[in-house]
Amino acid sequence: MNHFTLDDIHSYSKDIGSILSHVTLHERIEDEQRIQLPKVLGTGTIERMQIRTGMEIIISDVELSQNLSARIEETSGIFELNYFLSGEAVCHFHDRKVTIVEPMSNVCYFRDMEVCLETKANTRCQLVEIRMSPENLLHYFDREVDKQAIQHILQMKKGLIQSYQLSPMIKKCVYDILHCPYKGALKKIYFEAKAMELINLFFQENDLLYTSVDPSLPAGDVEKLKQAKEIVLRHIDEPYSIKTLAKMVGLNEYKLKNGFRQLFDTTIFGLIRRRRMEKAAWLLEREGVNVSEAAVLVGYSNVSNFTVAFRKQYGCNPSEYLKRVKSFSQ
User: Which residue positions does the secretion signal occupy (predicted)?
Assistant: First the structure.
């Protein structure tokens, strides 16, 4: 099969070529673009919302008629979270090859390097991207210790693509972006809020900001609290009591409860409930169980209580969540 190149794309549509090559990130342009793919390239649309100079959200839903090879030279640096919902792509950099397949979330930070992205033809490619300059990412953190932690993370991520499973929390946030109910200025505010939610989930779910905790927490307690979290996650279905857990890690109950909240920004029960709801969402979506069955399987004998807990986490009832998933996959 023949391949399109980025030069070919530029010849058919300057806007699409600019978006694919990342050159628009640091330029001030119109706040929102919606570009229909020319028939010669395939079908579908690419939407772009610039939150501010150096921060944008790209929503792609296209099907190419030929494979696309895009060679990108990253010089100024872009921190990117992308959510690959369908399709297949291959990324080449530093003599490495990374295959990206649905459904997956990826984080990357490229600076002063050349990247080649190959997107497969004849398959629907659905992708949501959050692109930010490092300066824009740091803008959302006030404390110097947090800024230092972010800079350290960027240094660790430089020149890498790391893939993560799309958790139900992340998937719901991505769906919210895809089904945004607003237009104009309100849409920009909404997109920025959702982008921050996704960034927060990325750092939270991958435990990347331990270094930014209050220094009043002794290092020994931090290690014990991390151990407590691991134990909680291994026993979600039959959790230990606070008293038992405290004895297991060598902390008193007060230090365990307060330290846990301080370090992980949630209570032990909050973590258990969140993971149970994530399991419930997975059961509903992937295993095809009904709401009553999902409730029982995650430890709820009362469906109403389960529905309340699910709505508290995902902002919608289980049945509505399933409708959103099904409507998106159509």
Answer: none
128 has pLDDT over 90 = yes
Are 96 and 138 in a shared domain?
A: yes
For residues 88-107, average pLDDT: 80
CA gyration radius for the chain? 22
Q: For residue 299, what is the enclosing H or E element?
A: none
- Is the pLDDT at 329 greater than 90? The verdict is no
- Looking at the structure, tell me whether residues 115 and 218 fall in a common domain: no
> Is residue 146 located within the same domain as residue 228?
no
Q: Of 224, 248, 265, which one is at a domain's C-terminal end?
A: 265
* Distance, CA of 64 to CA of 41 (rounded, Å): 6
Rounded to two decimals, what is the model's pTM? 0.69
Residue 239 contacts residue 232 (beta carbons within 8 Å)? yes
What CA–CA distance (Å, rounded) separates 117 from 119?
6
User: Are 88 and 43 in contact, with CB atoms under 8 Å apart?
Assistant: no
Q: Look up the CATH number of the domain holding residue 189.
A: 2.60.120.10
